[in-house]
Design brief:
The protein is of the alpha+beta class. The chain folds into 2 domains: 142 residues, no CATH class; 55 residues. The strands form 2 sheets. A 4-stranded antiparallel β-sheet has the order 3-4-6-7, with helices on one face. The relative contact order is 0.10.
Length: 270
């Protein structure tokens, strides 16, 4: 048998994609869903993980799995080979004008729940991740897997018991197949977006100020130091050489940038 991975369209105008090819599905597995509530928080989850794709490939090559799927199909009067992905049938009806959509939806949900229950019974001894297990009913009907990703990262602005602003980060894991590295990658790539949830944060203020810049700023604020003297002091203290070594031109440039950042952080202070 062949089991297809369905990828949700990125826009309403696009159709669902169905693929059984490992290479294609690996390339498509890099896509992510993103939801944002301005000023409050956002969540990030992967459409599906390639570990799920590999697991599905093992399932479709397993004769016992195919045998059990066909048993369930027979019980629900579904063709032995199932319907094609995207093919309209009683479990994927084509709605017409005037149809009672709510009634059709309720009947369809009830039917699919019965199929899913039989799948849970038939495959109770299979070590199948929940994110995949709950999609087995679609394998029975149309030979495809519609699965959510293995994880979801949630962030939200809140206040702790002392009324101090905090950003809460939580991670929902849906599969024991999920590795740590993709999660770390996502957190790193959206770290600035997370920090922007603080009410005082602005993109221009969030630029990192390194320790060298802080030293230069402190000496400037203390007074009594010329730009060449600041350069000599910092070069000696941090053993800066080569391209890292400061001269009065670099100090002047850094001070100009720091004054701009200072103005953005403290706009009412001259």
């Amino acid at each position: 048998m062949k089991i297809y991975i369905v990828r949700k369209p990125e826009s309403p105008s696009e159709d669902y994609e169905y693929s059984n090819d490992l290479k294609t599905n690996k390339q498509k597995a890099s896509g992510f869903q993103f939801e944002e509530i301005p000023g409050e928080g956002f969540s990030k989850d992967n459409d599906y993980d390639f570990e799920i794709v590999k697991y599905v490939k093992f399932l479709e090559c397993e004769p016992d799995f195919e045998r059990k799927i066909k048993i369930i199909r027979k019980e629900f009067n579904i063709p032995e080979e199932g319907y094609k992905p995207g093919e309209y049938n009683q479990y994927a009806p084509l709605l017409k004008y005037g149809d009672d959509v709510q009634k059709i939806f309720d009947e369809l949900t009830s039917s699919l729940e019965k199929i899913q229950k039989r799948c849970d019974e038939e495959f109770k001894d299979y070590n199948i991740p929940f994110s995949l297990r709950r999609s087995l009913s679609s394998v029975v009907t149309n030979n495809y897997i519609l699965t959510f990703g293995n994880y979801k990262i949630n962030t939200a602005y809140a206040k702790d018991p002392s009324n101090i602003p905090v950003i809460r980060i939580s991670i929902d894991l849906y599969s024991p197949l999920q590795s740590c590295n993709p999660l770390l990658k996502e957190l790193r790539s959206h770290w600035i977006d997370i920090l922007k949830l603080f009410p005082i944060s602005k993109p221009s203020v969030l630029d990192r100020i390194n320790i060298i810049d802080l030293e230069i700023w402190e000496l400037e604020c203390d007074g009594g130091f010329s730009d060449p003297q600041i350069a000599d002091y910092v070069n000696e203290k941090y053993n800066l050489k080569g391209e890292e070594q400061l001269d009065y031109h670099k100090v002047s440039d850094r001070l100009r940038e720091l004054r701009i950042k200072h103005k953005k952080i403290f706009p009412r202070i001259d």
